[in-house]
Amino acid sequence: MDALDRLVALQDLRDLIARYAIHYDDKAWDEFATLWAPDAAFVANGIAFEGKDALLEFLTTCLPADYSGKHMNSPPLVEVAADGTTATDRRPAPWSFAAITVSKGTR
Distance between CA 7 and CA 41 in Å, rounded? Predict the structure, then answer.
């Protein structure tokens, strides 16, 4: 992966993180669902929700129906693997240490 490819990948991941927050906060579930690959996994407090359907079921129902809020994202620290096939976003979150790993060719 050359420097330009790495910069493009980093921006794509930052955009994905922003879309996650916007669609989740707006409860735009159809758009939110497009962000996930069929084999995606989401881990919260040590509990894994594996597969797009399972994680969407959790994420779209885990908060009270009358909940309203907005994500305030700090700039992500995205670490791209040397081979360019995976990248991980690491940042502190109020409830835990958040980490999102993306594999090349998936959303």
Answer: 25
